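Reply to dn_fold:

You asked what the input looked like. This is it:
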Amino acid sequence: MIKKWWHDKVAYQIYPKSFCDSNGDGIGDIRGIISKLDYLQDLGVDIIWLSPCYSSPLADQGYDISDYYNIDPRFGTMEDMEHLIKEAKKRNMYILMDLVVNHCSDEHEWFKKACEDPDGKYGKFFYLRDKDGDKLPTNWRSCFGGPVWEDLPGTNKQYLHIFHKKQPDLNWENPELREEVYKNINWWLDKGLGGFRIDAIINIKKALPFRDYTPDREDGLCNIGEMLKDAKGIGEFLGEMRDRTFKKYDAFSVGEVFNEKPEEIPDFIGENGYFSSMFDFNEASFGQSIKGCYDAKQITPDDYKNCCFEAQKKIGNIGFLSNIIENHDEPRGVSHYIPQGDCCPESKKMLAALNFMLRGIPFIYQGQELGMENIEFTSIEQVDDISTLDEYQVALNAGLSPEDALKAVAKFSRDNARTPMQWSDTLHAGFTTGTPWLNVNPNYTRINAAAQQNDPDSVRSFYKKLIALRKNPDYKETIVYGSLEPVWREQHNLMAYYRTGDKTLLVIGNYQREYQKITLPTPYKKILINNYADLAEENNAITLHGYQVVILEM
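and this is what came back:
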């Protein structure tokens, strides 16, 4: 494997709207991010990924872009963005932006021109079909519910939107559209970006010609995934994009890739892959149901372990995964992966270590380093997220009571990760001096950065130790490039694996509140990380406390 500058890095995702508000309007902004760069540098972060802060009507919180060349005034100015890139560079940090090019906003100039002249140049930037009475061109269901087809204003045509109706899909089959995308990517890279996180990229290739699939709900529609499974030839688009953009700049790119086929992995993240890395969603997608999230299966510690090991085995040494516990589209990881009632500093640290020591690039989502948890919703009126609102309706349609529907969707709501960052125990968690756009989690008085930053036993300090270990010259080669081998895989509620390179490290996590005993194959040399003050041992046998995790040099 050719060693790249991003292999040994630690990344941190910022959701700008909820990170830090510098001007008191209740919305996080770029100047707020700049004010927290030293906090991130102190943690050990190298790469910062910003969720979208381009001009947008915010129908899907910025993933509906109306101008790819401008910053939304809610978040600041282009000068602020340039200042952020410059300040990050001073600290040897790289800024990634979100690349959202499966779709744009219906308020983008391209779409407005398509409405004016659907048969002209810009009509071909989208998927347009003539209306045929009440009959839809296809029976695909959008990711946010309802058909993927919507009337094109002022015309006798309809347009395709895999996501929200304000997010028309871009037609990647059109070379002119692709040229516009590449031009924009390079424009940003010329500004000094380190690269991009690439949103919903598998969706850019549609199965042609369009056709119906077997309906899977009473609405007569089918999951959009059925069409995407049939799509062939996405590599032509992705290879062209790599060669025309990222490769020329030696930029880092991480793909949001779902449902990739095992034989395609070298194409995606191999030696000359389309991307530098792709996210591991094996754990996040476990238990999902075609019926909706009300029918989802809860993940167990053994499921989590198996999902991680399956992903690691699938990738092997082909390339680098980007490992996550949570992101802006998922609930808080500690609330999702730790059994109910067991969230505590010890279990949060255990989850952190088990994930962080996997082979790949660790991504931390804002507040994850503090152990931020899901918020409790008492009413659907408190929910902002369009996906959660759709899932709530799906649950009601399935016969759940309003109380049970809310309880079912609250566990998975994207709003859990979007509540404001908890900086302190002062008003609004120190996020804003105004009224926050989304409710702050009431537990901010006990879970916040100010309380944890100088506490050596805090969750944040534990993350800092994990990052320091990853960067330690004595262990870096093993942690970054070493192989991963599961051990004691059949032992219930125990997750353990070797990382082997020029050193041999053993990571062991007791994934339950009860004690658990194991016998080491050989004596260990040194304890590198321990989330308890002690390690109970007798000869080569060790007894782990509830949720104890240790990283041993063997």
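The domain at 109-160 is CATH 3.90.400.10 (Oligo-1,6-glucosidase; domain 2).
Hope that clears it up.
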